[in-house]
Amino acid sequence: MLQKSSYSNRELQLLAAEQASVKEGSHIMQLPQGNMKMLDRIVQISDQGGQYGRGELIAEYDVTPDAWFFACHFPGDPVMPGCLGLDGLWQSLGFYLAWSGGEGKGRALGVGTVKFFGEVLPDCKTVRYHLHIKKILRKDVSVAFADGEVFADGVKIYSAASLRVGMIKGNPETPGTGE
User: Fold this and answer.
1) Which of 27, 73, 130, 132 is catalytic?
2) Domain that holds residue 115
3) CA angle 163-166-172, nearest 5°?
4) pLDDT-based confidence at 172, cuts 50/70/90?
């Protein structure tokens, strides 16, 4: 993956198309597609800066009033599910881990605490994710640790401490199934 300081939506789409054409056993950056893709662009990515001086990522997602989740969460009281904002943070951290050299298939591994003090409504234009990288471990599995914040049109609405994402080489087992 070409290491740049920002990525447009078109560049993220090209990376996804490259991912889809990779042969079995090869590993590159992966992001969900379709409705589950919560990133439209990476505004800034660096292995320096952030709250801990170890790196940061700022990504954005464009919100439209007709977004799929508003029709079902909740009818008559539309709001973006908080779990989608959390997933946007995990997707961002997974991108960071791949960008920094991690190899394998990405998996969200958890979060310490999440606090919600605002929401994304249909009149919102942009959701922004800001990650502060704490550390990256590289052994058989690469794992990134970060704290993150979610903003709706510039107003902080969520915070998440101790986000964890891993990249696992080979075929990761589904937790709890032994498969």
Assistant:
1) 73
2) 28-168
3) 135
4) low
pLDDT single digits (tens) 78-88: 999 999 999 99
Interval 98-108: pLDDT, tens: 999 988 888 99
State the total domains in the chain.
Answer: 1
Degrees (nearest 5) of the Cα angle 16, 19, 23?
160
Largest distance between two CA atoms of the chain: 49
73: annotated active-site residue:
yes
How far is it, in rounded angstroms, from Cα 140 to Cα 104? 10
Residue with tokens 């001086």: 53
Q: Which amino acid appears at position 166 of this protein? A: G
Q: Is the pLDDT of residue 174 over 70?
A: no
Residue 9 · residue 41 · CB < 8 Å:
yes
Kindly give the residue spans of alpha helices, DSSP state H, lying in the chain: 9-21, 68-72, 82-99
CATH number at residue 47: 3.10.129.10
- Residue 130 within any structural domain of the chain: yes
